[in-house]
Amino acid sequence: MASQQPPQLVSNLLLPELERQLKEDQNLWPNVKGLFIVTVTKKKKAAATWYLLLQGKDVMPLITASEEDARVGVKGKIRTVKVQVDDADLLNFITGGMTGVKAYMTGKIKVKGDLLLAQRLEEVFEKLGGRERAIDFIKNNEQALAMTNKSKL
């Protein structure tokens, strides 16, 4: 029996790119405090888990696929929210094709924990210029472009 390849995910390209941009420009650091545990699904099955650790505008944000790195990076007490979203819907959310409220109300994003904190994630992407940056990144990255063409945007 052949082993299955892990699914190619747009989030596996976009989220590390957002972290790279955050490391380069402290002005992009959001004034939000929380640990966002984002489970990315593909065909309704968990395909990847990302940890977005935001600790205010004075601490460098961390975006990682490593739970251990996220836990080690926590400074003091921090609220946690779990978000589950399909890879294509995450792309739609980051690029502004869908608002967080609309995604939540239609069941495209599932949230466990602090709903108000979860809503701040949209602000984070807006401050990052996530929409414009994600679209530029996709246009300039053939692998991401190929995957977005397959997703239902």
UniProtKB/TrEMBL annotation:
<feature type="domain" description="SCP2">
    <location>
        <begin position="18"/>
        <end position="126"/>
    </location>
</feature>
<dbReference type="GO" id="GO:0005829">
    <property type="term" value="C:cytosol"/>
</dbReference>
<dbReference type="Pfam" id="PF02036">
    <property type="entry name" value="SCP2"/>
</dbReference>
<protein>
    <recommendedName>
        <fullName>SCP2 domain-containing protein</fullName>
    </recommendedName>
</protein>
<dbReference type="InterPro" id="IPR036527">
    <property type="entry name" value="SCP2_sterol-bd_dom_sf"/>
</dbReference>
<dbReference type="InterPro" id="IPR003033">
    <property type="entry name" value="SCP2_sterol-bd_dom"/>
</dbReference>
